[in-house]
Amino acid sequence: MQHLLRRSSPLRAHASLSRFASTFTVKRPSPSATREVPTPLVFCSAGEWAPQAHTTNLYDPSSDFPHTPLFLAEKGFTCIETSFTRPPEPGITTSDELMAHCSQVENEPADVRLSPFPPVIFASGFASLIAQTYISSNPAQGLFLISPPPSNASFYPDTLPTPLAEFNYELQFPLALMAQPKEMAVLRAQSRFSQSAWVDLIEVEDLEGSQALKNVEQWLDELGV
User: Fold this and answer.
1) Based on the number of CB atoms within 10 Å of its own CB, is 167 exposed (0-12), middle (13-18) or buried (19 or more)?
2) Distance, CA of 92 to CA of 44 (rounded, Å)
3) Phi/psi at 203 (nearest 5 deg)?
4) Which has the least CB within 10 A, 88, 155, 178, 180?
5) Residue among 46, 43, 45 at smallest CA distance from 71
6) How many angstroms separate the CA atoms of 72 and 120, rounded?
7) pLDDT value at residue 61
8) What span, in angstroms and rounded, lies between the C-alpha atoms of 141 and 117?
């Protein structure tokens, strides 16, 4: 594992850790934040794997709009960005093995492993599958999905090597789903998320805009972290 520390302003200082083909970037709370939140936030992205229709650059540091981890670091959160790329292990041939591998990698950062507080997981597009695999067998304080697929089948065979069974974990914990109006209409009609009172459905026009950030911050406040 390679450890890197990039020198920059106190707010942007972060550590990047590489394991196999996945990268972790840790953003520490801003020194100017009024509090330091003990619950880590984990942001999962896997844009290189997925068709463009299933991706969003909400976590892209090259975006013209300040992305969510930086925004929340300013509020006192420790944010771990996990960027998944295809693992090189030749033994991984099924979608179940792929999800299991990635969900184990998600637990690698010390800020997640050593924290007494389970993390809040954020995931976009294809990474929503990895996040849901993770919470199926690991504790989490909440799950926030951005433009998730209406079903796992939508990623086979373009992205997944084999069919992946639909998740069946109980939707009885804090969970939010944010999407644009057209996507939300499909999710309401086809996704099981719309059937649970535990799931907050958040519809926004711009997934990278200020309203989206306000919704994320409000949801975390209501979560009590």
Assistant:
1) middle
2) 20
3) -105, 125
4) 88
5) 43
6) 12
7) 35
8) 8
**Cα separation of 116 and 40, whole Å?**
10
Q: Are 124 and 133 in contact, with CB atoms under 8 Å apart?
A: no
Which stretches does DSSP call E strand in the chain? 2-6, 14-19, 22-27, 41-45, 79-83, 120-124, 142-146, 175-179, 199-203
Q: Which two tokens stand for residue 96?
A: 């179940």
Beta-bridged to residue 4, according to DSSP, are: 16
Nearest-angstrom CA–CA distance, 27 and 161 = 33
DSSP type of residue 176 = E
| CB-based contact 90:101 (threshold 8 Å) | no
Of 72, 116, 79, give the one whose Cα is nearest residue 220.
Answer: 72
Could you tell me the strand order of the sheet in which 175-179 lies? 2-6, 14-19, 22-27, 79-83, 41-45, 120-124, 142-146, 175-179, 199-203
